[in-house]
Amino acid sequence: MAQDKKYYPIGQRPHELLFYPPGDEPLRRRRLPGTRRHLFKWRSRANPKTLQQERRLADKRPLWWAIGLGALVIATPFLSNSMITIAAIFCMFAAINVLWTLVIGTAGIFSLATLAIVGIGGYAAAALNVWLGLPWPLMFVAGGLAGLLIGGFLALPSTRLDGLYYALLTMGFAEICRVFVVQLKALGPTNGSINNVGSFIPKDWFLQRPGLLLGFGGAFLLLLLSLLIFRIVNSERLGMLLQTAREEEAYAEAVGIDYRRARMYVFLITSGSLGVIGAFYAMFYMSISPSIFSLDQLLLLFAMIVIGGLGRSEGAVIGTAVVVLIDKGMLELGPLRILLIAAIMLVVTLFANNGLVGIREQFRNYRNRKKSEARARRTEKGGEVMPEEAIEFTDKQEIYYRRFQKRLRDHLKTLITDELIEEHRKSPLGKHSDALNRVLNYFRRGEMADKYAIMRQPDGFHRYKIVAFSGERGAPPRLVDDRIYEDINEAYHAVFLLRVNDLLES
Amino acid sequence: MDILGTIIHGLNLAAIYGLMAIGISILWSSVGMINMAHGATFAVSGYAAWIVAGAAKPLIAAAFGKTLMAKLAMAGVTVGAGTLAGALFGAIIYLLAFLPIHDKPNFAVRSLIVTLAINLATVQILLWFFGPRQRGLPKLFGFGKFEILGVPIRYDQAGAILSTAIILGLVLFWLRVSRKGLEIRAMMQNPEGAVLSGISVRWTALPVTMLTGALAGLAAILLSQTIFVSPTAGALPLIKGLTIALLGGLGSVPGAVAGAVVIGFLEATVGALPFLGQRYVLFAQFLFIITVLIIRPRGLGGLLDETRE
Asked: Buried-most residue among A187, A481, B6, B238 (CB within 10 A)?
């Protein structure tokens, strides 16, 4: 029987991707080896209507990540040489931006020294390779160590200064690095850049197709690693500690969270990783130049994370994709590119609360607000239960009772005319017409709370006042008005008028 | 090394940087906005002055010939055009970066990003229209120098120092005595309290942005007596102004003045020292500012508690 029933797709549920595992088997959830984490966030529930077991993917972000990154890997080998370079640059900048998001978003340190650390890592690795003959696999180690060292140096004032002051300091640091490199006597002939750096890309493959593909592969690996670091730092212990600190620093301190130390750790971890990226950068181009420390490059990177949305790894990657595609992919536009990027930045910041990735949430909030406004407008009518409210009532009888009452009131309102009121005024008691009888019966059945009554005054026999019951045992009735009626029929009619008034207002 | 000459040079730089820094500082403390488009205002005013001066030159020459009157008229036109363009650009910044988002969450960061975008776009548009070539403005104060107590002072240096002092004095006086100035100062002290006592945020922010824009325009005219007008000319004054505003403690006008004087003299001294030279000026400035900020995290004039939240 139940199987034959046809269900119509209503609401959002039909669009939900659901799986129906056999309900009698125990749930097996595989953990990632070595951790207590699961790869996907499955949620099970027994559907009360169909009595079937359902499994739903509560967090679909891993799927989107896999689709996006997988498409990039599969599509890149079929692209032209210049597009492969763009894809590699995208991966490299995305890796930098993901780590930067970790500093700005997770740690809450407004640092602008990101590119400076990358540059220092790159310069250190390149210099060691060119002048001391360090083999290329060790360049990563050298870059990472240099980044860690500089990170440690820069982290010292980060707890003392706040916000803009620290941003300025780090911007100044980048400027100092640029000037320092440009002024170096040893680099004088090459205008501050180090060329002929050893690389994981063989010399004769450089700028050839296999070399470009190899470079892309390395950059992609770098992006995956930085996403892994983001995930480990942001959603594990350090990230949790810092989330508390972001919401309320004093409270975090009071419950014993040393958020300064946590921030320092995050900063050091990212600095080391950025140094590694710097070494990769030097190898990828087989050279490194002081332009990496320039303000323009920094602003372009800042535009990337701002367009994507501060504080989220998706934002960093999407923003990088947008800006790199415009900046490197539309070279024929000339200076219009920067204008376009600035315009996108302007529009996104003016209209979105948190970049492109925040738009979905912002739209949902907006829609929910509009929905509840519309609902409030509709539910004003007559105290009836609206369908979307009905789920809030456990006793469904209440819903039908209210609907009946509403219809009854609507009908009775049509019965009330001047003649009817005149009829009641002439004889409040006694035989009445059908319409007046119906109205009076409705009034008699009313709830005790706020029901009107006539109270004889103690100072005279024919002196009445109108009161209303409180509806609570022991609580005295309240006086409705001070008027004293000398005639009982007059008082009856006054009560009738009050009730009619209440009915028409409901 | 010529000590007195260095002092004059330092005062000259301090005057120009002070105009920029005070604009940034006032805007931050009253409206709560870091204006990264200040450099764009600088460049736009320079170009506006260049265009207007070029257009007015034959007219003035026809009207006054080669008299002192002609020079005065030329100076008036140039300064007026630059200041007006700065004020108008300030109004544009107000319309784009303040009006749509001033009551939305995260205003401080978002307005910073919007002004940054305005800066990027303006520099590109200027590059597009005028090309990267540098343009010279007419010399307001003429060529030549005079001597006071044996110190040779160039006319443009003296003019810059004097006019900055006069303009800044006028602005501070206006802030002190006028009704609007009172409102602006109320906003600087306590934005919420100012709103509660009936001061409109929108109608106070507009004159503030226009005033700071006009100050930047004036700084552009004065600095262009020494350097040339170009699309990217605003970057360095912006960085200098920002660093000085931070060094002085954001929002503190006396701090900004002190910071400007210190940085101006530092620049003049480092530039004049034989073993350092002009190339190490920025290096030395940043090192100095970093040292000061590490010792006094909220700058020279900044209070130690939260001045603006």
From this structure: B238
CA B233 and chain centroid, separation: 13
The size of the A-B interface in CB pairs under 8 A is: 102
Average pLDDT over residues B170-177: 88
Q: What percent of chain A has pLDDT over 70?
A: 98
Report yes or no: A221 and A280 within 8 Å, Cβ to Cβ. no
Per-residue pLDDT reduced to its tens digit, B71-126: 778 888 888 899 999 999 999 999 988 888 888 877 888 888 899 899 888 988 88
User: Quick one: residue B34, left, alpha or beta (phi over 0 = left, psi -120 to 50 = alpha)?
Assistant: beta
Per-residue pLDDT tens digits for A25-74: 777 778 888 888 888 888 888 888 788 888 888 888 899 999 999 999 99
Interface contact flag, B127 A335, Cβ < 8 Å: yes
Q: Is A360 helix (H, G, I), strand (E, B) or coil?
A: helix
B215 contacts B89 by C-beta, under 8 angstroms: no
Q: What is the pLDDT of residues A394-442, one digit of tens each?
A: 888 888 888 898 889 989 999 999 999 999 999 999 899 999 999 999 9
From first CA to last CA, the distance across chain A in angstroms is 45
Q: How far apart are CA A345 and CA A340, in angstroms?
A: 9
Given an 8 Å threshold on Cβ–Cβ distance, is B96 in contact with A343?
no
Q: Are strands B151-154 and A53-57 parallel, antiparallel or unpaired?
A: unpaired
**Residues ≥6 apart with Cβ < 8 Å to A497:** A421
Q: What is the mean pLDDT of chain A?
A: 87
The one-letter amino acid code at A468 reads A
**How far A240 CA lies from chain B's nearest CA (Å)?**
22
State the average pLDDT over residues A94-114.
Answer: 90
Q: How many CB atoms lie within 10 A of CB A131?
A: 10
Longest alpha-carbon distance in chain B: 60
Task: Assess B104–A contact: CB distance below 8 Å, yes or no.
Answer: yes
Please tell me if residue A184 touches chain B, with a CB cutoff of 8 Å.
no
Cβ atoms B100, B92 nearer than 8 A? no
Is residue B227 within 8 A of residue B240, CB to CB? The reply is no
Within an 8 Å CB–CB cutoff, is residue B110 touching chain A? Answer: yes
B228 in Cβ contact with B236 (< 8 Å)? no
Number of H helices, E strands in chain A: 17, 6
Could you give the CA distance from residue A246 to residue A109 in angstroms, rounded to a whole number?
11
The string of pLDDT tens digits covering residues B225-239 is 777 778 777 777 888
- Backbone φ and ψ of B181, nearest 5°: -60, -40
Q: Which residue has the tokens 């009207």?
A: B63
**Cα(B175)–Cα(A478) distance, integer angstroms:** 61
How do residues A444-491 score in pLDDT, each as one tens digit? 988 888 899 999 988 888 899 999 998 888 888 988 888 899 999 999
Q: How far apart are CA B74 and CA B46, in angstroms?
A: 15
* Three-class DSSP category at A57: strand
User: Which pLDDT belongs to residue A102?
Assistant: 92
Q: The tokens 């950059």 sit on which residue?
A: A219
The whole-angstrom separation of Cα A175 and Cα A171 is 6
Instruction: Report domain extents, chain B.
Output: 14-142+158-253
Q: From CA B161, how far away is CA A349, in angstroms rounded?
A: 39
Q: For residue A172, which residues of chain B lie inside 8 Å, CB to CB?
A: 243, 286, 289-290
Strand, coil or helix: A193: coil
Q: What percent of chain B has pLDDT over 70?
A: 91
Residue contact A343–B117, C-beta within 8 A: yes
Q: Whole-angstrom Cα distance, residue A356 to residue A347?
A: 10
Burial classification of residue A470, based on how many CB atoms lie within 10 Å of its CB (0-12 exposed, 13-18 middle, 19 or more buried): middle
Provide the residue count of chain B.
309
| Sign of the four-CA dihedral A186, A192, A194, A195 | negative
